[in-house]
Amino acid sequence: VRQAVLQVDAAQRRIVVGPRSAGSDRVRLREVNWLLDPPIGPLRCTVKLRAREAAHGATVSGAEHGAAVVTLDTPALAAAGQACVLYAGDRVLGGGFIDGRPIVEHTALPAGDVAQR
Question: Least enclosed by CB within 10 Å: which of 25, 38, 75, 88?
Fold first, then answer.
């Protein structure tokens, strides 16, 4: 069974791995940095949760006080401590770090959505 990074805890020098089928449809971001004014309401965009994977359709909400919530169109792996970059086409809107506090429990990804490497 292929494993994936589920959480990065730099302070404790710890990495948590688990099955690649573990996914979530919502993630909380911390230390969000916007390259434009933060959106007042929900914002449709694409996000990259992992550098080598395709972007995901998403809606960003609650963008205030350096935090935001990303609701993904489909569940995906989101490892706490890793960066999440927000895009409008090829334009970077901003980004933040995936917070380790879960919003919803992990759900299984549909078969075939997990890239084999």
Answer: 88
Q: How far apart are CA 5 and CA 15, in angstroms?
A: 7
What is the residue-level pLDDT of the chain in tens, covering all 117 positions? 677 777 777 888 888 777 766 678 899 999 999 999 989 899 999 999 988 889 999 999 988 889 999 999 998 888 778 899 999 999 999 999 998 765 544 445 555 544 443
Give the domain range for residue 90.
Answer: 23-108
| Distance (Å, whole) CA 101 – CA 28 | 7
Query: Any bridge partners for residue 69, and if so which?
Result: 28, 61
Q: Is the residue at 14 inside a domain?
A: no
